[in-house]
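Input sequence (72 aa), recorded before submission:
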Amino acid sequence: MSNLQSLKKKKESASKARSFISQADKGREGERGKRLNVEIPEELHYQVKMKAAERGLTVRALVIQILQSGVK
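Predicted structure, token format:
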């Protein structure tokens, strides 16, 4: 994959992530987010990063999706 193709894919991924996060935050304007720090095994971290990349998401967006589906 060329550098140009790689940059284009990253730009598309970032756009998808912003869109998802925007949807998740709708109706919450003015509300500050909360930070969640969790130490996880290195292998799990790698798997999360790979899954996010496969879906064209950031790790943050993927974790938000997973957490939202898990608490419903």
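Checked by second reader. The chain is about 70% helix and 0% strand.
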